[in-house]
Every structure is written in C-alpha cells, then in structure tokens.
Amino acid sequence: MSGNTRRPSSARRPSTTNREDFVYQCKAAYLCVVNDTSYNLTEKRQLKTALNQSGRNPSKKNLDKYWRGSTEELTFDDFCDICKQETVASEDDLMKAFHKIDINGDGYISHSELYTVLTTKGEKMSRQEVKDMIAEVDENKDGKLDYKEFCKFLLSTTNDCKKLAKEKLDKRSQKSQPSSARSKDRTSDDSPRTKKNDVPRPSPRATAIEEKVFGPLSTKRIRLPEPRHLKDWDRHHSKGCFFIEDDGDIISHQYSLDLKEDSSVWITIQPLVLHPEEDVPKSPVDTALFVLRDRPDSNGNRLVTFTEQRDQKGKYCVRCDLKRGHYTLVPFTTGCRLKQRTSDPKVETKLIKKDKDDYTLTKSFREVLSDVFEVNDLDSNGLLSRSEFSWYNMRTSGESVGDEEWEVVEENVELKNGELTRAGFIDLNKMEADDQNGDTSDLWVTLQSMGYNKGLVMDEAAPFKLEVYTENSGTFKVKSLSSPGSALEKALCESVINKGDCQKVRGMKDLLIHTYAQDFRTTIVVENKSNSSISLLIDCSGSKNCNSSRNKLEHKIQVAPNSSVVALHVMAQNERLEWIFRCSENIVK
To answer: Cβ distance 474 to 258 under 8 Å?
Structure first.
C-alpha cells in the first residue's frame, strides 16, 4: 500500500506508551465505521469518515493517493499506516495558513476574504458551507473573524471527533465480559461482544434471488409518453458529460431548476452521439437522471423523482408535477458500460507535425478537437461562451477562466459575438503546441482529462444532452461539474426501496435485499436494520449477457449498521440479445 510522502518533523521512534495510545485512537476511529478491526474498509468514503473521526482532514489529492483506482479494500493495519502519514494539523500550522490571508496583519480576516479562499482554493467548500461555519464562530456579527479564535474552533472540532470516537470504544469495552479467559481473548482480539439486538454471525449460506429474463431491448418499439401541447411549454436544454476520475469515481455536469410557481415538468436525457453516421453503439452508455430537492424533507430524503422510462435508443424520460422551489438535476450512469480503462493503446497517435520552422496539428487531432468543442458547446449554438470555456478549463486544468485568461483568448483567436469559434478553439491548441516547442505532454493531459486514450478514442467519458420542459416559467442552468456524492447514493437506495421487490435474507430478520428490475437495468440494494455491520458476497456470475457496475459480476460488500447500500447494477452487455439476471447472496463471516 502506498500513500502520501509527507512525514512528521521528528523522525524519532515513538515510545511504547505513545504507540499504544496511537493504536488505541486509530482503533476508536476505525470502529466508528466498521464493527470490528478484523473487517476491512471497502469504500473510499469509509476511509474518509474514519480519518475524520481520528481528527484528520485529508485533502482530495491525498485521499486519492491512499485509495487508488485499483484499491478494493484496506485493513486496519493499512489504516494505521495512513494515520501515521496524514498528520493532524496543529495550531501553528493553521496560524501560518491564516497569516497568508491576513494581508494587513491586524489578526482578523473579513468574511469576503474567507469566502474567496475557501470556495476557490484547494479543497473548495460551497458558499453555504462557509456561511454556516462563519455563523457559528462570528459571535459579534461584525463581519470579521479573529483567526486565533477561529483556529481554536477548528481544533476543538477535531478534538471533539477524536473524543467521541474514544467514548464509543470505551463503552464497547465496558460491555465485554472479562469473567473468563475466553472473553478476555475476544477483547484483546478486537472482537466486540454481540449485543442482544444485533444480527447473529451465521455460518456462510446462500439465498437465491429470483431469476429474471429480459428480451432484446433494441428490437422493441417504445414510444415515450410525451405530454400534449409540449410545444407551448418553456424549453430549456444543455449538453453535459460523464467523466471517469483517476480513482474510478464518475463526475458530471449538475444542473439547477428554479420554479417560481407549481409546474408540470417533462425531462428527457440521452447519449450525445457525435458521429451518428458511423458509430451508433449497439448498447449505449446508460444516461439517466434524478431530481432532488435542495433541502431534505421531514424524513431526511431529497429524492423527488427519477427517469424510469427509456426507449430502445437510450433516451430516458420522466414527467412530474413539481412544487415551486429549487431543485437539483443529477445525471446518473451506472458504470456498467462506462468503465475505467485498464490499458492504453501501445501506439500513441501523433498530435503535431513539424513543417519547416512551424508546428501544425495533425488531421486526426484537429478532428478530435472539433469533437471536444462540440461536447463543451453546452447550449448548442456553435460557439463557446466564456462560461462554457470556463467549464472546459475547470475540467482540463482545475481552474476557472479569469479576466486575464479570457483577454488572451480575445486577443489571439477568432471570436464571434464575444464567443469563441470552433476555429479559434483549435487555434488555441495550436498556440499551446508552439509555446511548448512541439512538446505534446500538456496536450495529452488535456485530451486524457476529456476522456481520450492514446489512440484518440473517447473511452473514459460519455457526453449527453438534456431537455427540460416546464409548463410554467422556470430558470435552468449548469450548477457544477462534480460528483453528486452521498446525495445520489441515498436517492438510488430510496428509489430501489420504494419501487423494487423486497425479501428477507433467510434467518436474518433485519437484513433485506431490494431488487428493482427494469427491461434495461436491474439494481440491488441491501438494507441492514440491525446494530451490526454485515458482510455479503453478491454473486451474479450465473447471469447471461450481462455487465456489472462493479469490476466483476461477483462482489463483496460491507453494510454498516442501520444503513442501506447499493450493492451493484446489472445491464445487458448486448441489447440486441436476450439477457438473464440470476443472482444469489452469501453472508460472509
């Protein structure tokens, strides 16, 4: 296992007492996520939560180093190693950081300065997150923060997390039974005693999930229930794209919809085929959408609705009646067909060639740049606005386009009505080749961030187009290019639990398997109502003509107490053929 290269300032070996305390703190944090140190962390978010509970706040960059794309699980020993590398920030560290922001050196930071730093630099926070944090620490509401007090607030929050984790561990230790040597052995072996209401640890067993057979989807003629008089409704539209990150996560454009009054809404989303005359896929990348409230309801749920219907070409739709308010539209793909590449072509396609003293772009590179332009032309007007170019720049370099950068564009390449033309966009890349004296390293970084491999094939991205019709007026716009995170995971679980079939696992009264089967997708959600963490092996290897959202059709998953988890999605590998979903689960000790 590899991790961050940062090291504490002192290289001395810790004393036995300090080491025991360190391991105890790690154990306390670890057991906030799983039920036993013999269990492994199986998801990146579990690692992040455990690190937070230990008082650490890793950056996304560091977290990606600890949990790489190939990582399947981490042991307790791995977690301890990471905690050694990911040091807890000291008051001196925080003070040095704030000194850089405090330009006039008066010991205070204005709200606007803090907003700017925390929402644009490093690990960016949302404006609402920053607003909530300031409201908690700015007691006199004078618009400024005493950053010495602010440092104490941040450190107290860190200490509270560590204290809570240790308190939980102490309570668990008190409930053990030290009256026999066997009980002592269990305590020393980090195996907590099962509570009365916990799920028992049975021997491995298999429970069959009903077999489902689906006919070829591409041969069906499915007419979507488009509303009458749709031409009289307000139409909003945008392109977008799914991108696979280095760690295997999928991000995409997210959208906001603001309704000033109640309205009927019709939404469609479908793959964007760049060259329909030559590369219509046999089985398109699934491109669905979830509608979420900006604020949870009384039950803590944000899901409003999602695209349940799909035609044979891959177009999804939903019609719903929405109350006035703010909504987030979250595109979704299962990962069954959009997967992280395992290797690059052996031969790298040439991007440039030298013509005397000048560099020119190859024909194949120019064609790909034209496609990249098409994907980022979100409003489909044949031009890139500054906003659209900024979204592109965020994806390829991680930075938005400032005034100086846009001035360079305006001064050097072709614009029309203040927007970047396709020819101008290609010329920008030609300028980059010239500036780098023919070195194509940066050009490849851009292409790979847009999902292209060394053969100039887009295999780690999937563009789509979205249309939103509102019977009454509404405001629609691109909100972010990011991962929906836990909000989408919760919405997926809620949708499957509400719509799917449910069955109890044999002999496990508090463990439920929810299966939501449609002609084009089957999703399994595991709901654990017990007070114990449970490990399951979901085995769909008996399925025919199927792809899974996991690396294989057989996947081990750990479900935390009183939680629900998406186990996997399964889709037809070839939609022109019949596909059979057949699955069973095994409880793993």
So the answer is: yes
Determine how many CB atoms are found less than 10 A away from the CB of residue 418. 10
**In whole angstroms, what is the distance from residue 148 CA to residue 131 CA?**
19
Helix 441-449 to helix 422-435 angle, to the nearest 10 degrees? 140
Question: Which residues, 6+ apart, have CB-to-CB distance to 171 below 8 Å?
Answer: none
- With beta carbons less than 8 A apart as the criterion, state whether 587 and 543 touch: no
Nearest to 535 by CA among 31, 29, 36: 36
Residue 184 is encoded by which pair of tokens?
């002592």
Distance CA 193, CA 177 (A): 8
C-alpha span between 330 and 291 (Å, rounded): 6
How many C-alpha atoms does 332 have within 13 Å on its Cβ side? 27
**pLDDT value, residue 169:** 65
Please tell me the predicted confidence (pLDDT) of residue 159: 66
Burial bucket for residue 450 (CB in 10 Å: 0-12, 13-18, 19+): buried
Q: Token pair for residue 113?
A: 């300065």
Q: How confident is the model at residue 2 (pLDDT cuts 50, 70, 90)?
A: very low
Cα separation, 126 vs 467, in Å, equals 26
User: Distance between CA 168 and CA 28 in Å, rounded?
Assistant: 7
156-186 exposure pattern, b = at least 16 Cβ within 10 A, e = fewer: eebeebbeebbeebeebeeeeeeeeeeeeeb
Give residue 116's pLDDT: 63
φ and ψ of 522, to 5 deg? -125, 130
Residue 125's closest CA among 134, 177, 70? 134
Return d(Cα 181, Cα 504) in angstroms, integer.
37
Q: What do you get for the CA distance between the two ends of the chain, in Å?
A: 25
- Report which of 322, 290, 273, 302 is spatially closest to residue 469, judged by C-alpha positions: 322
Pull the structure tokens for residue 23: 């391991």
Judge whether 290 and 254 are in contact, CB under 8 Å: no
DSSP-assigned letters across all residues of 113-172: HHHHHHHHSSS---HHHHHHHHHHH-TT-SSEEEHHHHHHHHHHHHHHHHHHHHHHHHHH
The answer to which of 229-233, 484-488, 491-495 has the lowest mean pLDDT is 484-488
